[in-house]
Amino acid sequence: MGKIVLKQVRKSFGDVHVIPSVDLTIENGEFVVFVGPSGCGKSTLLRLIAGLEDTTSGVIEIDGKDATALPPAKRGLAMVFQSYALYPHMTVRKNIMFPLKMAGMDIEAATKKADAAAKVLNLTSYMERKPGQLSGGQRQRVAIGRAIVREPAAFLFDEPLSNLDAALRGNMRLEITELHQNLKTTMIYVTHDQVEAMTMADKIVVLQAGNIEQVGSPLELYNHPANAFVAGFIGSPRMNLLEGADAQAVGAKTIGVRPEHLDISTTAGQWKGTVAVAELLGSDTFLHVNVEGHGTMTVRGGGDVNLRHGDTVYLTPQAGKVHRFGADGKTMA
Amino acid sequence: MATQSSRATARLMVAPSVILLFIWMIVPLAMTIWFSVRIYRLLSPERSGWAGVRNYTWFFNSPDFWMAINNTLLLVGGVLAITIILGVLIALLIDQPVWGQGPLRILVISPFFIMPPVAAMIWKNLFMHPQNGLFAAVSRAFGTEPILFLQNYPMSSIVFITAWEWLPFATLILLTALQSLSSEQLEAAEMDGASALSRFRYITLPHMTRAITVVILIQTIFLLGIFGEIFTTTQGGPGSASTTLPYMIYKQALIAKDIGRAAAGGIIAVILANIVAFFLMRSMGKHLDA
């Protein structure tokens, strides 16, 4: 139904090779998140799959058929854009019905489908409004509604939540996850927010400079990052990456310790430092500690940690939680 | 502008310009109305006095008058149709990324910089002239008789020349509207299965309605008063075949030297312009709301 296979897909704009070469298999029904820093080519990759950009070379297969040269409409995919891209002069109903109208479906059947989609998305009372009269979250839902009615082989989301405020983003994240569980359709979701990636994905694809750094489930990436880039990108706050004598002691170029894997002590420990900033969140306390020889390290402690700016603190990594990276940045066995 | 005193000050500050603008408008209008009901002929200054509505009735009884009204509307309608249809097409064309886009756009805009009498002279002498014109040369090359544009098709020729002058304006406004259309909307429509024609019909054209409305309103205002093109090409002829209302008023004022009748014609023109404006605003005003 919605299996998508990329074989040595390349994309160049003139001399700029945005995507050097990508091989990727997305199974039917999977929720796949492309994540990476801005400019890493994740949106371009999505647009290649959508057919909005021409592939320079390589093959894109959808449901086992070569779709590389197919126009977007023939690929059976639906896309939700960052700006929602609603049609401003049409009502919500007409927006949702537009793809059906273009497919030549008769008005009655199309209305029925649009109403059904609106019911799922709680849009029933807004059907006669124009997009300009809706809030950000409602517009987002209309865009999703327009995608659902087509019953596509896969949904493509291009940073759909980045224009929403934090609270709404949390809600929509849940709604999209629920939608995926109900529809069981393949979804490809692009974001630069690793929290979205961790919470929503079945499978995360971490991209950097057009290359796939690692593919895996959220916890796989968290526990066993393939290299220092993935280790630093996945997890919040970021993993502490240390170089120098401490790394050489375990035979690595760089070692990494996550903030939550550092024990805090006021008397003794491996590294000594002073607290620069203490962020008290109630449930947790994030300490930004200036460690001699290593700069600032981030530590996560419980809500009961009672340290303030200027206090001396000792940090010790928990046994078995230290990641070692070689000179090439790859994780050492 | 929140407090009472700031509102009062604002009114006080704006008042002089409002009063000046009001005088600027009302004095000429009042004088025109006054002259339009007087007998006022420059060639027979000894005759004066009240004319009543005779200046007006002269217009309505003149066979040229209805033709002039017809020609005026034909000119406005014809130029609007040509400039908007071609303007949309050219705007679509030069919105495409092509090599030399900057100079190309300047070339497209340039007719607008040529003053109307000059443009009309160029068309009259270099293109439409039966002996020296380019069109005549083309006709002869194909072995046919040169078309006498200004003799046989005076109104169409003037519509064509005026449309040539105003096409850049329409193109420019429509192009800016086109450039403000988000590409994501077009891409979304493409994903939704809309063909190029449907994308134009359902996305691009609705997006351009407001710009088209602006073009129609502004052009109508200017086209109702077109004079220089007619003066330099056909002089309203042959006969009265290309006489419009402004040209008819000119003929009364400066050829027949009858100020009274010309003033009456002016008032009729004002009324006509208001009727046109009323219908335009009624049918298009809603497109101007955000």
In words, what does this structure look like?
The complex is a heterodimer of chains A (333) and B (290). With 333 residues, chain A is α+β, with helices and mostly antiparallel strands. Chain A contains nine helices and 18 strands. In chain A, the strands form four sheets. In chain A, strands 6-7-8-3-9-10 form a six-stranded mixed β-sheet, with helices on both faces. A five-stranded antiparallel β-sheet of chain A has the order 13-17-14-15-16, with no helix packed on it. A four-stranded antiparallel β-sheet of chain A has the order 2-1-4-5, covered by helices on one side. The mean pLDDT of chain A is 89. With 290 residues, chain B is mostly helical. Chain B has a single domain (56-288), classed as MetI-like (MetI-like fold). Chain B has helices at 4-36, 54-61, 63-94, 101-109, 116-127, 134-141, 149-152, 154-179, 183-191, 196-223, 228-233, 245-255, 259-288, and strands at residues 38-40, 48-50. In chain B, strands 1-2 form a two-stranded antiparallel sheet. In chain B, helix 5 (116-127) crosses helix 8 (154-179). Chain A binds chain B through residues 50, 52, 71-73, 77-79, 81-83, 85-90, 98-99, 102-103, 146, 150, and chain B through 182, 184-185, 187-195, 198, 202-203, 206-207, 209.
